[in-house]
Amino acid sequence: MAHGFAGKIESGLFKMMAIGLGKFAGAQRYHTYAYRLGLEHVIRTVGRQVLKSGKILGGLAILEDANHHTAQLTAVPVARMEQQEEELLARVKSWMGRIPAPLNILIIDEIGKNYSGAGMDTKVVNRGVNGQYNPWDTAPAFDRIFLRGLSEHSYGNGVGLGMADVIHDRLLKAIDWNPTQINSLTASTPAAIRTPIHFPSDRMCLEKIWPTVGKTKQEDVTIGWIANSLDLGTLRMSENLLAEIKSNPRLEVIGEPEELEFDLQGNLQGLLQAATVGH
Known about the structure:
alpha/beta; two-stranded antiparallel sheet
């Protein structure tokens, strides 16, 4: 699936023929055209031209489930590639992991290219790479996003930080601006690397951002916490969402309510670390 646009064809075999096989020059040129014409149109027309060359024998479509496991492998012949890609995309979209409720604040431990080409999956966090808030009707709305860090497996590429509202200083310090700028400018998405407001502790980030969500009492603010936009099997949600959680048959409460535990510097452990310690 594509992270910056929605269509019947997104980040599949056709996009790999255009932007993948096109390498840096192709990616830059096609994103430039897409700014005016739309990325799906560019992907389809370039892909058709590549197929006309007769050099493509077929494709192997790898579909992942909501837990990042390979769920289906499909050999796709050239003659049916465009049609079959539409069918496969519709299928994999139905398997996609989602955050189960709208939130005032979404906390994310890490962004990174290893989680999404956009740093975090825009269809999960409901943001656009050009700064749009809640553009997708397939995901709940989130008022504010707080990013805590950058994955070491992103090798300094901080693309995606611009979609957040507040970030921890540690994320900013981990960014290598050279690959980050190359990636963002090649994709014609400079807004994706704007620097949000930032503070030196998790506590300060939350204290500064919660009054901006339209609630006058802190206890009324709804909060969700995920490790990253790929691992959604375990998440933490504020206790004021308990009734909604219990009414959803797809959710299971796995622990008693707990206070957010800040260390002496005002920082939290990572979500998955905290879950391991708790169990």
